[in-house]
Design brief:
It contains 8 helices and 30 strands. It is an alpha+beta fold. The chain folds into 4 domains: about 25-135, Immunoglobulin-like, CATH 2.60.40; about 145-275, Immunoglobulin-like, CATH 2.60.40; about 290-410, Immunoglobulin-like (Sandwich), CATH 2.60.40; about 485-590, Up-down Bundle (Four Helix Bundle (Hemerythrin (Met), subunit A)), CATH 1.20.120. Strands 11, 12, 14, 15 and 16 form a 5-stranded antiparallel sheet that branches. Strand 8 (about 110-115) and strand 9 form a beta hairpin. The longest helix has 29 residues, at about 450-480. The chain is elongated and about 145 Å long. Pfam families: BatD. Keywords: Membrane, Signal, Transmembrane, Transmembrane helix. This is Oxygen tolerance. InterPro entries: BatD. It comes from Flagellimonas zhangzhouensis.
Length: about 600
């Protein structure tokens, strides 16, 4: 009976242990605190490690009453796969020195993992009087922790919206150790910022100081940020795994110091910017978000030309600021001028201080009628963060004079406000004849005559003719694509004519020849200037089933126009290219 009772007790104990083990396996999450020693002298150091087997958030260390933190927290992460199972460990390490003798408690630390809060078990430490030979010599990890510091230097902590902020990541290394390699563990994503990395081509060590001590530092990363919203914005930390060689107290056979390699995880820490919103007071109505210091201009390639010729109008902003993050103002052009969609051009360099360069919109303008056309001045507004004020720049008015061409009814210039109608004081009615020379009318009856019926029925006959003519004109006017094709044909003939006149003048000839070829393609293939690449032209012509030799000849002409900018071309070659252009256009025209 006694034996049976003992067996039952053993079985229940085993069952309880198995249940606890199964519960621990299901729980699976561990968060522990480890001390390097539980008794130390007043002149010794204490190492405290908080280790978890799953990554968490909101780590909260204890107060460390009775101790002073001389280093930490430093992070170390290890992850591996063994037999298909992942092993993970993350440790926060602190190095403490006691401030007084006595018994002290290292209280609980907390962390959140998967929405649950985990706590460590408190541990007690006894601090005695100073000892003659401290037993807590610095370990390799201690030396590495104290000798490595990753710092994120921010140019401005309180910038304006869309003002450039430069972040420079520097790794400070003590002369006592040497870095062999590093790899990034977590790169910032820079949410709510427009970002541009500035490549660091050479990692050159420089002398500096960190917390008053001599260090060497290396610039690892540069990035320019433009905040896209106001308020407090966080810059996520950059984390690196650094591989270092740390000297030990051991020496080799020849007396040289023996080094030990270790790896440490360093983080630059999270930085917060307080981004100021742009002031509402004094904000211009045409402000489009430009922030920086800029110049503004509106220019044209010519101010006098003939109808069906073209000119280029350029709206350009140059300077330093967020050049890629705003829109250029649009010019207000007279309706009598045909304007093509602008071609946007950028020449921007991003330096450590921000973007610099220029942006422009290029408009192609083709007048159809003779006359004078004013291009009114336009304004560009931007915010200058150095002055803290808005500034507005205004372009000059440009007058375009079309010398030759058809006269349109819309070209009649309206009298200006300060013009007055002048009435002559003399015989302004002298052209009216006062002496009537009357003759007697024919007394034959008009009613029922041939003229009478002609006048009665002629308007009825003209009505269908008028309706047909009106619909024809309306169809022609609504055919925008057809009208542009006709205009492009005129331009192609014009540029080929100009090229013929410029034979002997290399640069002007090939510019005119290239424009003529391009405008011919506009007319026949209905493509815009932005699509003018050799590959695109070849692809479209093949789709149109154009002869391969003609395609090759056309591409060769474009190549000659490009090469002429950099190579000497003879008059014979120019004459040959002109004749070839006429021949190719004729052949393409038959096939298209």
């Amino acid at each position: 009976m006694q034996t049976l009772r003992s067996n039952i007790v053993l079985f229940l104990s085993f069952l309880l242990l198995a249940t606890n083990f199964s519960y621990a396996q299901e729980e699976g999450i561990e968060f522990t605190m480890n001390l390097s020693k539980e008794k130390l002298g007043l002149n010794e150091r204490l190492r405290v490690d908080f280790t978890m087997n799953k990554d968490g958030d909101n780590f909260n260390p204890p107060a460390f009453n009775g101790f002073k933190v001389v280093m930490g927290p430093s992070q170390s992460i290890s992850s591996s796969w063994i037999n298909g199972k992942r092993s993970f460990s993350k440790t926060y390490t602190y190095i403490l020195v006691p401030t007084a003798r006595g018994n002290f408690n290292i209280e609980q630390a907390t962390i959140e993992i998967d929405g649950q809060t985990y706590k460590t078990t408190p541990k007690s430490v006894e601090v005695t009087a100073a000892v003659d030979k401290p037993s807590d010599q610095k370990t390799v990890d201690d030396v590495a922790d104290e000798s490595l510091h990753l710092v994120a230097e921010v140019s401005k902590g309180n910038p304006y919206l869309n003002e450039a902020v430069t972040v420079v990541y520097k790794l400070y290394v003590s002369p006592n150790i040497s870095v062999t390699n590093y790899r990034p563990l977590d790169n910032p994503t820079y949410n709510n910022f427009w970002s541009q990395d500035i490549p660091v081509t050479k990692h050159t060590a420089q002398n500096g100081t960190f917390e008053g001590k001599p260090y060497r530092f290396v610039v690892l990363k540069r990035v320019v940020l433009y905040p896209q919203k106001s308020g407090k914005l966080d810059i996520e930390p950059l984390s690196l795994e650094i591989f270092v060689d740390v000297p030990t107290n051991r020496r080799d056979f020849f007396g040289g110091r023996i080094y030990t390699q270790t790896s440490k995880t360093v983080s630059a820490g999270k930085r917060t910017l307080n981004v100021k919103a742009l002031p509402e007071a004094g904000k211009p109505s045409n402000f489009s978000g430009a922030v920086g210091d800029f110049d503004f201009s509106v220019t044209t390639t010519k101010t006098q030309l003939n109808a069906s010729e073209s000119l280029q109008a350029k709206v350009e902003v140059t300077g330093k600021g967020n050049l890629k993050l705003f829109q250029l103002p649009e010019p207000e052009l007279p309706s009598a001028l045909e304007v093509y969609d602008p071609e946007h051009d950028e020449a921007i360099q991003t330096y450590s201080t921000g973007m610099e360069g220029k942006v422009s919109d290029n408009y192609t303008i083709v007048p159809a009628f003779r006359g004078k056309y004013p291009i009114p001045s336009i304004s560009f507004s931007y915010f200058n963060p150095d002055k803290g004020t808005y500034e507005t720049l205004t372009s000059n008015e440009i007058n375009i004079e079309v010398m030759e061409g058809p006269t349109g009814s819309t070209n009649a210039a309206a009298p200006s406000a300060n013009q007055q109608l002048v009435v002559p004081a003399g015989d302004q009615f002298h052209f009216i004849k006062l002496d009537a020379n009357l003759s007697s009318m024919n007394q034959s009856c008009f009613l029922g005559s041939r003229s009478f019926y002609l006048l009665v029925f002629l308007p009825l006959l003209l009505i269908p003719i008028a309706i047909f003519s009106f619909k024809k004109r309306e169809a022609i006017a609504s055919d925008v694509v057809g009208n542009r094709i006709k205009q492009a044909n005129k331009l192609a003939r014009k540029y080929l004519s100009t090229a013929k006149k410029e034979l002997g003048n290399k640069e002007a000839f090939y510019v005119a020849l290239e424009k003529g070829l391009h405008n011919y393609l506009k007319a026949k293939l209905h493509i815009v200037t932005s699509e003018f690449s050799k590959e695109k032209i070849t692809e479209i012509l093949k789709e149109k089933q154009v002869d391969a030799n003609d395609i090759q000849s056309f591409i060769a002409l474009l190549t000659s126009c490009e090469m002429a900018r950099y190579s000497p071309f003879s008059n014979v070659q120019m004459q040959k290219d002109y004749e070839s252009a006429s021949d190719v256009i004729s052949k393409l025209d038959k096939q298209l």
